[in-house]
Design a protein that fits this description.
Layout: E1 9-10, E2 36-41, E3 48-54, E4 62-68, H1 102-113, E5 117-122, H2 152-164, E6 169-179, H3 181-193, E7 203-206, E8 226-231, H4 239-251, E9 256-261, H5 273-276, H6 281-300
Parallel strand pairs: 1-9, 4-5, 4-6, 6-7, 7-8, 8-9
Antiparallel strand pairs: 2-3, 3-5
Helix pairs in contact: 2-3
Length: 302
């Protein structure tokens, strides 16, 4: 592996109105078509996962992004409290492709518009926890069955196997994107992947938990490049722990580029009016939307 170590940098952004971003092409309602619903087995060997597939125009094969939701689950908070088991045989659940959260719809459409197939697996719904979890619930025993260390990485690996079996996917050009609990899951997938070059080609990781309870180890050694996007004013997880993880992992030869957004809070790329009312969130979301596709393009051409 080429030993590429990027220095951690703190990126400052001019304060801008987050709501102005709603006029950008990737946020318009016309671009947010409802995704297909697909099913495939988790690598745990026992769970039949539901997932949502955003497809670009054309026949492919396309590069692909597997998107890993956070602790709130993939669905809108307006409906998830009433969600039940999500499965092939439970089509009446209010949690479905039509009730995904604004963030997941935005990013799924973002990738499809840029020629990527995007897949959002639901780790919670098929295990009877489609309602997701609130803030500061990491110690909730209900989360053990869907934890980011030993359970959810197997879902990501099952998604990888599923995509590689599709004729419209370029099997060697698949990356990860994860938010919060899903960001920690993405890091744990790369812990498991290690130095092998036949797995995920990189990971975009948004405000993950980086403490001992969230990750499989203190130092990540992988050939896959990683982009960490952190919120300086995160009210749920510690960006300092993630910076320390990145520094240790860089010294071990892992390529991690870390951006800390001043004034941004947890979930800064949620395009709702309430989340974008925080001054630092709009510029942070704008920057990640501008940088994500070029980063992945660069990773895949190596």
């Amino acid at each position: 592996m080429e030993n590429t170590t990027r220095k951690i940098r703190t990126k400052s952004c001019a304060v801008a109105l987050g709501l102005a971003l709603l006029g950008m092409p990737w946020l318009t309602p016309a671009s947010a078509g409802q995704p297909d619903t697909v099913y495939f087995p988790s690598a745990d060997g026992s769970t039949d996962l539901a997932a949502y597939l955003f497809k670009p125009q054309g026949n492919g094969p396309f590069p692909a992004v597997i998107m890993l939701h956070g602790r709130g689950g993939p669905y809108s908070s307006n409906v998830n409290s009433g969600c039940t088991l999500v499965s092939r045989t439970a089509p009446a659940s209010p949690c479905n492709a039509g009730t995904l959260s604004k963030r997941h719809m935005m990013w799924g459409s973002y990738w499809a518009e840029r020629g990527y197939l995007a897949l959002l697996p639901d780790s919670f719904g098929p295990r009877g926890k489609a309602h997701g979890f609130g803030r500061h619930t990491h110690d909730d025993p209900e989360r053990d069955d869907v934890n980011e260390r030993t359970v959810r990485p197997l879902d990501a690996e099952g998604a990888l196997t599923y995509l590689r079996q599709r004729s419209d996917v370029a099997a060697s050009q698949i990356v990860l994107q994860g938010w919060s609990n899903g960001g920690s899951t993405a890091l744990n997938v790369l812990f498991r992947q290690g130095a092998q070059s036949s797995g995920f080609r990189g990971a975009l990781v948004f405000y993950p938990g980086c403490g001992e309870a969230a990750l499989l180890g203190p130092t990540l050694r992988t050939n896959a490049p990683i982009a960490l996007f952190l919120a300086a004013d995160d009210e749920e997880v510690s960006p300092a722990l993630c910076i320390s993880l990145a520094e240790r992992s860089q010294r071990a030869g892992t390529a991690i580029d870390t951006t800390v957004y001043p004034g941004a809070t947890h979930g800064f790329d949620e395009p709702s009016a309430s989340r974008q009312a925080t001054a630092g969130n709009g510029p942070a979301m704008d920057d990640t939307l501008r940088r994500a596709a070029p980063l992945v393009f660069d990773w895949l051409k190596r």
